[in-house]
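User: Could you write out the 3D structure of this protein bound to glutathione? I've included everything you need below.
Assistant: Certainly. Input first, then the structure.
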Amino acid sequence: MITIHHLGVSQSDRVVWLMEELGLPYELKWYNRGEDFLAPAELRALHPVGTAPIITDGDLVMAESTAIVEYISRKYGGGELSVDPDDPEYANYLFWMQFNNSFQSALFMKMAYQAGGGDLTQGGQVVDVMQRREGGLYDYLEQRLGESEYLGADRFTCADIMSMFNLTSLEMLGARPIDEKLPNTLAYVARVSSRPAYQKAMSIAGPAATAP
Ligand SMILES: N[C@@H](CCC(=O)N[C@@H](CS)C(=O)NCC(=O)O)C(=O)O
């Protein structure tokens, strides 16, 4: 059985959500963040990259949520929530599976700039580049959700599981809020949040959940 090594208030909640969508059994091992808000030593000891999520599956220890989600979907979920290469939506699926990492790169760039004393309101070349990159991501998100109800295909897929955390949980770190200025994205978040498996997963491992 797969063990999900879950860090409180983290994107490892998406692995719990995937298991609930697929109706697969799993064991949840919960780790609390330290006072520095980082992962504790016990979680970091599991894998050299030391970030959550990590799964163990027999002898396999795997990190990186995009890889984990696709691994579980293909190996144990019959590919039901993945998109095959001969599907016309395949390119969309690949793009939106990676959106998570582009989104977080843009956010962490902004956070690092501000942590180093940078002032976004002062403008300048670095701020222009950051704002262009961030703006492009939100523009494309809004455009895609004006054309399709879901990100990776015309149906719910792993690409939605990969993207929701960014839209729901990262405002606390400075991500742009999803509000009426992004109407297609706002409607999408409401649509996907109403899924029973999402609600169950968030009650178990979402940002407001606590160790069992
Ligand atoms: N690209 C990685 C990012 C993993 C990551 O940054 N995880 C955060 C939690 S959201 C973490 O482990 N933070 C604690 C730490 O770095 O000590 C993934 O998708 O798995």
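The two ends are 19 Å apart (CA to CA).
User: Perfect, thank you.
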